[in-house]
Each structure stands twice: as structure tokens, then as C-alpha cells.
Amino acid sequence: MTLAVKAVGIRKSFGNHEVLKGLDLDVAYGEVLCILGPSGSGKSTFLRCINHLEIPNGGYVWVDGAIMGYELNRGALQELPVKRLRAQQSQLGMVFQHFNLFAHRTVLGNVTEGPMVVRGLSRAEAEARAMALLEQVGMAAKASSYPSQLSGGQKQRVAIARALAMEPRVMLFDEPTSALDPELVGEVLEVMRNLARGGTTMIVVTHEIGFAREVADRVVVMIDGEIRENGAPQQVLSNPGDARVRSFLSRVL
Ligand code: ADP
Ligand code: MG
User: Fold this and answer.
1) Does residue 45 have its Cβ closer than 6 Å to ligand 1?
2) Ligand closest to CA 222
3) What is the Cα–Cα distance from 19 to 16, expressed in whole angstroms?
4) Nearest ligand, CA 178
5) Within 13 Å of residue 195, how many CA atoms lie on the same side as its CB?
6) What is the CA radius of gyration of the chain?
7) What is the pLDDT of residues 220-229, one digit of tens each?
8) Which atom of ligand 1 approaches the CA of 46 most closely?
9) Is residue 205 within 8 Å of 219, Cβ to Cβ?
10) Alpha-carbon distance 129 to 63, whole Å?
11) Which of 39, 57, 163, 235 could form a disulfide with 93 if both were Cys (CB 3.0 to 4.6 A apart)?
12) ipTM reported for the complex, 2 dp
């Protein structure tokens, strides 16, 4: 069966600082994977390598069986032209810590922009689909508001709807609740929990151990640019074999 995401031997350095030291990861369709790890361990860089926002110095990523950023040409790998790379990247929906909404667009405009500009949907069709997604994240009533008029939790729910509007095969979340006031975390996790229940394939970098324990099919712990644990939530969270993982978890649990 084709995997949603396969990463093999991913390495990334900035100058002489080796941030990712050869990471392997398989994610099946329908799977929810949570990535935990201390700040600076390379989690964001790994997500950015998966969607080719960063080009790995070594290793390759396949999304739905196609190698990211390259094509085979007479047996040799060649870099994809930018336009086709963008099309590949649009198979991965990305939700960031800091929302990154378009400030000068309404909530509805934020969700329709990608489908209209990249996919060529008509305004009517893009708006109909956007409203259904805003309904799904509980934001339909705010369709004509601007981002500055929303709470952080509301902004993040719009950001999730915006990513879903591109109909990605996989959703990537980079600490989606880390910038939120504590009382707003729950509403965003609830939307993510519903997505997971609906079968969305998700890779979630998070410090929300409760969410990982309850929602993840699998938990990965990264330390210092390496995957130190990769297994079922109960196993990894309750009984990690690795001493540095035990020490990290004892600080966040
Ligand atoms: P995490 O998301 O786990 O906190 P990051 O992937 O953001 O970790 O960062 C891992 C390391 O890589 C950090 O030491 C960070 O300073 C470094 N790093 C990340 N991006 C860059 C960059 N564009 N240039 C230089 N160093 C970077
Ligand atoms: Mg990060």
C-alpha cells in the first residue's frame, strides 16, 4: 500500500551545525503521528524538510509515492521546476504556531484565496467550499471578519480551514497551540481531534502530551536531531526505553 509520507535518511545542516542526523519516518494514510521533543531538537526543520520548504542535505521524502522536489529523467534525479514543486507542496497542508493569516483579507477571503489562485476554482465554488469548512471549524459566523478581530484560537481554526481548503493529502501542524492563551487551546485541539476522527492523515508537532496520548496512533520523540522513540503512545509515553526521552518526558508530563 502506498504510504502518505515516507522519509529516508533526512539530513540537514545550517553551516556546520547538523540539525537533522538522518531521520527515517513512515506515515500511513489515516494515521495521526505526534512528534514530541525539546525545543531546538529539529522538529520544525523536519516538517519543513518533509514539505520541501527546506531542501535536505541528504535523504529523500516521498508523498503518496512521489519523490518530493525531483523527477526521474532517464534514470537520474532532476530538480522539479518551481511550478511543479508548488503543486507537490500543495498536497501537504501546513498549520503554523503563528497562524500566518492574510491580514488584509476576511476570514472567507483567507480560505478562498488558495483554491481560486492555485486551483482555478470559481469564486462561487471556492466560497461554497470555504463556508462548509468554516462550519466544520466553528467559524462560519465570522466569515466576513478580519483576522485582527479574532482571538488566537479563532485565528488558528481559520488557518486550519484554509489549509484544508487545498484538499491536502496530509496535514502538518507545527505547535499549533503553543502561541495561544491556555483557555483557547481546547477549542483548537477539539477541531484537530475531529479531523483525526474523520480519518485525516496528520503529522502534529506538539507539547500537548494529553492530545498525543488520546489522539495519536503513534508518537515519535526527537532529541538532538535524531528520532529516539517511535511507537504506540502508551509505550512511548509511559515506558520509554531511552534515558534522554525519559528525562525529557519527566519535565513535560
Ligand atoms: P524545534 O522546532 O525542535 O524547536 P528547530 O527545527 O526550529 O527545532 O531548530 C533546530 C535547530 O536548528 C536550532 O538550533 C535552530 O537554531 C537551528 N535552525 C533552524 N532553522 C535555522 C536556519 N534557517 N538557519 C540556521 N539555523 C537554524
Ligand atoms: Mg519548532
Assistant:
1) yes
2) 1
3) 9
4) 2
5) 32
6) 18
7) 999 999 999 9
8) 6
9) no
10) 25
11) 163
12) 0.98
Please name the residue that has the C-alpha cell 534514470: 75
Residue that has been written with the C-alpha cell 503512545 in this structure: 233
Of ligand 1's listed atoms, the one at least distance from the Cα of 45 is 6
188-246 tens-digit pLDDT: 999 999 999 999 999 999 999 999 999 999 999 999 999 999 999 999 999 888 899 99
83 CA to centre of ligand 2 in angstroms: 27
Cα dihedral sign for 61, 64, 65, 71? negative
Q: What is the CA(178)–ligand 2 centre distance, in A?
A: 10
Residue ranges in 198-239 assigned as alpha helix (H):
209-215, 233-238
- The per-residue pLDDT for 7 is 98
Distance CA 111, CA 142 (A): 12
Residue with CA at minimum distance from ligand 1 atom 18: 14
On whether the CB atoms of residues 210 and 132 are closer than 8 A, the answer is no
